[in-house]
Amino acid sequence: MKADDDVYIRLNPQAMSLEPLPRVDLYYSFVVPCNSQNPYSEYMSGMGYLISWDLVEWISTSNIPKLDLFGPEDKLVGKWLTNGNKAKNRISNKSAMYDYPSSNGKCSHELIPHTIVVHRLKRWDQ
Fold first, then answer.
1. Number of Cα atoms under 13 Å in the Cβ half of residue 88
2. Residue 119 above 60 pLDDT?
3. Which of 38, 68, 91, 117 is most deeply buried (CB count within 10 A of its CB)?
4. DSSP string covering 20-53
5. Is residue 67 in some structural domain?
6. pLDDT at 71
7. pTM, rounded to two decimals
8. Neighbour order of strands in the sheet with 48-51
9. Is residue 125 domain-resident?
10. What Å distances lie between residue 24 and 19, 46, 61, 95, CA to CA?
11. Total structural domains within the chain
């Protein structure tokens, strides 16, 4: 899992949410932009996303990532996986992964019991 330094990850709920999911070709987080519900049309948020080990290995050996290295990492990873016809199992857990309520984040909502990741836990001046 890749995660920003301003997130809090609740590992037990995350592990439970992953339990029924496929172990290969998996791309898991929540799809951006916030109002989108289709994980196959965009990319997963850079706050924290998980890719299965086979995708990690593919990224390390494929020429697709090597030829496209500039830009926001979350957008790049999504683009690489799409261009490589990878990540057939894209899971967006939007309600459980969000920006902290008072952060003015575009993807924020009130804290909820089944939270997995909360983002924007520090301000730029911190």
1. 6
2. yes
3. 117
4. TS-SSSEEEE-EESTT---TTTSEE-TTEEEE-H
5. yes
6. 96
7. 0.92
8. 2-3, 48-51, 26-29, 89-92
9. no
10. 13, 20, 17, 23
11. 1
* pLDDT at residue number 105: 79
Contacts of 73 (CB under 8 A, 6+ apart): 2, 46
The string of pLDDT tens digits covering residues 26-83 is 999 999 998 898 999 889 999 999 999 999 999 999 999 999 999 999 999 999 999 9
Write out the residue range of the structural domain in which residue 45 sits: 2-119
With DSSP H G I counted as helix, E B as strand and the rest as coil, what are the percentages for the chain, rounded to 5?
A: 30, 20, 50
Backbone angles phi and psi of 54, in degrees to 5 = -60, -35
Residue 7: inside a domain, yes or no? yes
Residue 17, in any domain of the structure: yes
Query: Which residue type, as a one-letter code, is found at position 102?
Result: S
Tokens 């949410």 belong to residue: 17
- Residue 34: which residues within 8 A CB-CB, separation 6 or more? 94, 106, 107
Residues across the chain: 126
Lowest-confidence range among 31-40, 57-66, 84-93, 116-125? 116-125
Contact 28, 49 (CB under 8 A): yes
